[in-house]
């Protein structure tokens, strides 16, 4: 795709301050790619060959255990970058997780040699990368805190509330994957919430009845709500 005006800069305003030489380098080497839902962006063990900046869509980054259990680490949406990709580029390492497209994506692809050159030559680019890297690392630490120190029922309540509406279309397995646990465990916890009158469950749907009680549970971090 020809980048005469480097139109994608509007999605990343910080890049308007890039040095003339850096802009020229990006114009020459960057490409834009699209991928539909279901496409694997990278797999655990792959070598990272480019820095990716998301223009549109969303992908899920996840880790799979030796037993096949999946946990969602984070999602990458419009205007964001991938912390694992940045880690691999900075450390010259392989991907420690995998990613799959959930909503059709459009990405800016900066080849690894150009990324490394800009990290050395461009203070503006380097500041952008490290600022985003730090913010994303903080998000991962929050996830670690939730997994390690919060009870599952509190995490489940938070997950249900974060979806943003009272009608949730998710299978128990999908919720288990999000929380990094087994489907049977999620089913038991949902049944407990239903018995308390916080939710009701139908075929493939969960209805939130008591958002206030779920919020109390999510904030408590304990199993005694």
Describe the overall structure:
It is a single chain. This protein has 225 residues and is α+β, with helices and mostly antiparallel strands. The chain has 2 domains: 7-148, Jelly Rolls (Sandwich), CATH 2.60.120.10; 150-220, Orthogonal Bundle (Arc Repressor Mutant, subunit A), CATH 1.10.10. Helices cover 44% and strands 24% of the residues. It has 8 helices and 8 strands. Strand 3 and strand 4 form a beta hairpin. The termini are far apart. The mean pLDDT is 87.
Concise synopsis of the structure shown:
With 225 residues, the protein is α+β, with helices and mostly antiparallel strands. The protein contains eight helices and eight strands, in the order H-E-E-E-E-H-E-H-H-H-E-H-H-E-E-H. The chain folds into two domains: 142 residues, Jelly Rolls (Sandwich); 71 residues, Arc Repressor Mutant, subunit A, CATH 1.10.10.10.
Low-confidence stretches: none
Helix content: 40-55%
User: What's the CATH H-level homologous superfamily of the largest domain?
Assistant: Jelly Rolls
Q: Helix/strand-derived class?
A: alpha+beta
Name the overall outline: elongated
Mind telling me which CATH architecture of the largest domain this is?
Sandwich
CATH topology of the largest domain: Jelly Rolls
Structure summary, number of beta strands: 8
CATH class of the largest domain: Mainly Beta
Largest sheet: 5 strands, antiparallel
Strand percentage lies at 15-25%
- Separation of termini? 55 Å
N-to-C SSE series?
HEEEEHEHHHEHHEEH
| Whole-number count of domains | 2
Keywords: DNA-binding, Transcription, Transcription regulation
InterPro entries: cNMP-bd_dom, cNMP-bd_dom_sf, Env_Response_Regulators, HTH_CRP, RmlC-like_jellyroll, WH-like_DNA-bd_sf, WH_DNA-bd_sf
Pfam families: cNMP_binding (PF00027), HTH_Crp_2 (PF13545)
GO molecular function: DNA binding; DNA-binding transcription factor activity
